[in-house]
Write a structure and sequence with these properties.
This is DUF2029 domain-containing protein. By secondary structure, this protein is mainly α. Helices cover 66% and strands 3% of the residues.
Amino acid sequence: MGRWHAIAAVAPVFVVTRVAIFFAATSATDSQVYYQYGVAARVSSVGTLFREYDAEYPQLAVLFSAGVGLVADVLPAGAERVIAARPSFPADTGTARFQVALGLVLGAIDLGVLLLIAHLGRKLQPNDPRTQTWRLGLYVAGTAALGPILYDRLDLVVGAVALVSVIALVSSRPIVAYALLTAGVGFKLVPAVLLPLFVVAAAVQRAGRFWPAFAREIVIALVVFALWPGLSILFGGGDRAFVYMKYHAERGVELGSVYAAPLLAQDASVGYAFGGYVVRGAAADRVAKVAQILTIVGVGLSFLVAARALRRCGSADRVSVVVAGCVLTWLVFILTGKVGSPQYLLWVAPLVPLLPLRTRAERVRAVGFVGAGLLATLTYPYLWPAVHGAPVPNQPETWAGPTPLGFVLLLARWGAIVVLTGWLALRLWKFDHRAPFTDVPRTKCGGHP
């Protein structure tokens, strides 16, 4: 049973948690929006949708929603009743069937990610089923911690794209990796921040001097990446192909962001705009602008830290260093951004299990990601009323702000992410090619035995 030992060990927990999430625990909110986009795209076209409506998602996300709609069409009559136990079962049959189909599609992606982690885990520790099981357990537990949103949001797809891109990159297929990341950008913009890191990793893998290889990889990556705006304009709405960028640029500081608690401790209130709860006040407007600068600076610094480690690592460490760089970059993006939604942790969920697990301390810190997911889920949806507070009388769509419990949840959630981000940054900064970054056995020359 050696090859399947790790999968067999986590399979019961995976099945039980996924059944509970699919049938009863999913808090369906965003899926209702996806359903509307999918219907609009199928009735006319993606290009027409973008020309006539201020969409908030890129074209591939809309196409994905339309594809889920096709799956919903072939479900048997009455299939929508299987999710009747969910806390927000919709009255509209079409929406309910779409939610069933979305859960099935995301469930298939979820299973695929588990199998890919198992595959990479066997390569990283071919003779260590215990660590392989740890990796799969981290994925199952981390995603289960985010259970209410796991099968309601598209963010798991983003994490899956990153995982497959990493596999292509470390398999010496950088063009495939660039293409996958570019497709991910057409789905949700955030994979774009990983592209510079992939360019460095690809250049390091090439024989010869680094800087000529780096310049060559930049050109190749830009050519591939240029397909995204070109195809978006041609088939996705012409001059309105990127209208969703305006939507995200105009969003304020959301209640789930790291900035919310400090702002609400002052003279600020909670309102509702752009489909979410936002912090209102003059200070919040200024912070929203500053946050964009902080995000650029933070992501840039995380890239430099990860690139430094990549240039110092050997082939035995490359998978873990690339993964650590991706996780660090995305955590910094999440931490400094003005939105900070809980589902963003689904981006890193497929990558965290591939971080170094050589020591007990590394395993404890990796489990910290599960804790961050649990705190995010407590924040939303379970204790969300404590976070936005009581309604303000005579002021529509206005809330007083967090209760003491709400403040504790926000501070604990972001405190955990700050600690994990800092640990990962320090781990990469102190990387020493003479000491193993992973627990892969080595020869005296530093390579695989």
